[in-house]
Amino acid sequence: MKVIDWDGHTQVRLQLWDIAGQERARGLNRVYFKGSSGAFVVYDVTNESTLDGALNWKHELDCQEILKNGHPIPVVLLANKCDETKMCRRNVSLLEKLCQEKGFVGWFQTSAKKNINVDNAAKFLVKQILQNTEEPMKEEEQSIQINLQQQSKTNSTCC
User: Fold this and answer.
1) pLDDT tens readout for residues 36-75
2) Which of 41, 48, 58, 100 yields a CA-CA distance of 20 to 30 A from 128?
3) What is the DSSP string of the chain?
4) 41 phi and psi, to 5 degrees?
5) Do residues 73 and 104 make contact, with C-beta atoms less than 8 angstroms apart?
6) Segment 128-152, tens digit of pLDDT
7) Between β-strands 106-109 and 75-80, what pairing exists: parallel, antiparallel or unpaired?
């Protein structure tokens, strides 16, 4: 659990689960996914097979967690272990293509070991989550609110 101050008057509480892609955790994915507003899916750039596993996790997230507006929750792909810049530069076009095809809201090359881009990825995901929770007021709700305000002004006995 991590609580961060977002903009001086908004606190965001993050609950992070690290299940390390373990197959035995797949049976509990509904528990992990339930009520999620966003997610990171991480793969290891030094082990290409982990990318397939990450794409499977993304697919399961899309099938099981839907926002009120009917869209999938925002998911950010993290290409972890980017300690070797040569290896990470090679993957840029692949990551951009995958994000478009698979519906990731973005991707970051990260290094958990050296704390590279971890905070930037978290801020990006929180921004995506907040954009989805700030639903604009419907026209009829605005109309009712305006009418109520006008009515209260005309019925006012004050000043």
Assistant:
1) 889 999 998 888 888 898 898 899 889 888 888 888 999 9
2) 48
3) -EEEESSSS-EEEE-----TT-GGGGGGHHHHHTT-S-EEEEEETT-THHHHHHHHHHHHHHHH-B-TTSPBPPEEEEEE-TTSHHHHHHTHHHHHHHHHHHT-SEEEE-BTTTTBSHHHHHHHHHHHHHHHH-PPPPHHHHHHHHHHHHHHHHT----
4) -120, 125
5) no
6) 988 877 554 444 433 333 333 333 3
7) parallel
* Mean pLDDT of the region 112-129: 89
Domain assignments of the chain as residue spans, ordered by start: 2-154
CA distance 102 to 58: 8
Nearest to 113 by CA among 77, 76, 83: 83
pTM, full prediction: 0.75
What top-level class would CATH report for the domain 2-154? alpha beta
Phi, psi dihedrals of residue 153, rounded to the nearest 5°: -70, -40
Cα 153 from Cα 134, distance rounded (Å): 29
N-term to C-term CA, the chain: 51
